[in-house]
Amino acid sequence: METINWRDFKDVLIANPQLTLQFQYDHNKWVDASYHITEIKRTLINSVDCGGVLNAWTEVVVQLWEPQTQQEERAMEVNKALSIIQLVEKSLPLNPDAVVKVEFGISTYDTRQLLPKGFTIEGNNLIVDLRPDSVTCKAIERGGSCGTTSTGEECCAPPAQSKPKVQLINLASPAAACTPGSGCY
Description:
- By secondary structure, the protein is an alpha/beta fold.
- The protein has one domain.
- The chain has helices spanning 6-15, 78-91, 138-141, and strands spanning 20-26, 29-30, 36-48, 54-65, 99-106, 109-122, 125-132.
- The longest helix has 14 residues, at 78-91.
């Protein structure tokens, strides 16, 4: 799934300040209108994949909290979300190219980080369509394969180092041996 970066996410919000901000996390399942944006995280990821390759990227995680009891009849306006973002960015610089994730969970939906798939405007609502992230093999992302190849090589194993070929000479051979009086040293 294509990811949305922080710059593009913010640009959509900035373009629609008077709309009501809604989050849909599954078919006909919505984050309750009483949600709060409780924090925005800058997450620096540093990892080494199964092939020994170092990877690094940044994520911006917008955390939503849904109170036990409904406190609002209507979700927050985009303007309110932008004021929270502005407050956060005064203290915490956020990478405009960072991948955006939205963290959400309730008693009937385990907490997880979801990817914004896209935005829809319906009436006075700006709807952020959230979808689960998936795990991938970075070897495939680099154009390799995952698992064992037809030649028996593992995609995740470090590349085989070619060893120099050495020609062996049989020193015990009578033709190569020196004999007394032959003039060899």
